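Module 6 notes. Inverse folding takes a fixed backbone as the condition and produces residue identities as the prediction. Think of it as a translation problem where the source language is geometry and the target language is the twenty amino acids. Below is one complete input and output pair. Work through it position by position during the lab.
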């Protein structure tokens, strides 16, 4: 029974983290019509900035500051590079791919000059073992799930109950009509891009102490999985992205009990991809 309980907890923790990533990616696509190929890079920046700021601010201070910095970087990049080319999908993809490569190389060079190492160990911010039968579960992971869930609930409230959320939905549904009624579309789009980048950075900052390591390449695999979750959830659908993220996490973690972790991840990805055979527009996409 203990292995099942531990696996269930892991599934909940990683489901919340995948949801942060997928919802952020879906937000950006819904508002701009851009598939953000730099999403994994923002995740990596959040993890590395949190690691770099922890000696000065402490882990929890760094956890608050790092996503804000990455969000500002994302909003700054969105204004000149993405929004003006949002109607040209190929150009947007190339721009985002270029941003990803440039940021990754800048981080790599900075780490090489500052420390001479690309991989850095991250210590858990607290030691809180939770007894489950004869085994112990890392209490930090429970805090991660709670923090990620609180942020997602706050995002849901922002989306459905605030004036900014109303403007965001209007921009997602019809850019031109939103302009006609006086909504500052470029400003909203830049804000959404920054918010999506901040969500990815938060996921990275929270994940560092779980994986115990940060590096400039840590966002590559994360990007591929996040894109698939977002596509299967329905491009631009926040509810679909959340549901598929949680489903994927449960599949991967429970399959890990039966097979090699790499095979388990492949099996989970194939399984959620099969949803597209039934609903080609994605779980939450419009028919």
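Target side of the pair, the amino acids:
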């Amino acid at each position: 029974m203990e292995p099942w309980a531990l696996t269930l907890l892991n599934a909940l923790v990683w489901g919340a983290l995948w949801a942060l990533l997928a919802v952020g990616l879906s937000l950006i696509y819904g508002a701009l019509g851009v598939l953000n190929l730099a999403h994994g890079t923002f995740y990596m920046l959040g993890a590395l900035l949190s690691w770099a700021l922890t000696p000065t601010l402490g882990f929890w201070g760094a956890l608050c500051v790092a996503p804000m910095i990455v969000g500002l970087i994302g909003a700054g990049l969105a204004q000149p590079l993405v929004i003006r080319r949002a109607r040209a999908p190929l150009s947007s993809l190339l721009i985002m791919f270029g941003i990803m490569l440039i940021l990754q190389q800048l981080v790599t060079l900075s780490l090489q000059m500052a420390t001479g190492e690309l991989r850095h160990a991250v210590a858990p911010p607290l030691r809180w073992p939770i007894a489950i039968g004869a085994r112990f579960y890392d209490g930090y992971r429970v805090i991660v799930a709670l923090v990620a869930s609180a942020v997602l609930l706050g995002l849901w409230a922002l989306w459905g109950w605030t004036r900014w959320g109303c403007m965001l939905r209007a921009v997602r549904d019809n850019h031109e009509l939103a302009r006609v009624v006086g909504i500052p579309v470029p400003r909203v789009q830049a804000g959404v891009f920054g918010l999506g980048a901040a969500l990815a950075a938060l996921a990275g900052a929270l994940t560092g102490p779980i994986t115990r390591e940060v590096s400039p390449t840590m966002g590559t695999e994360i990007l591929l999985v996040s894109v698939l979750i977002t596509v299967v959830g329905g491009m631009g659908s926040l509810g679909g992205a959340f549901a598929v993220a949680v489903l994927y996490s449960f599949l991967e973690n429970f399959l890990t009990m039966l097979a090699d972790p790499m095979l388990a991840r492949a099996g989970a990805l194939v399984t959620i991809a099969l949803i597209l055979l039934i609903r080609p527009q994605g779980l939450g996409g419009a028919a």
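Reference fact for the lab report: The two ends are 42 Å apart (CA to CA).
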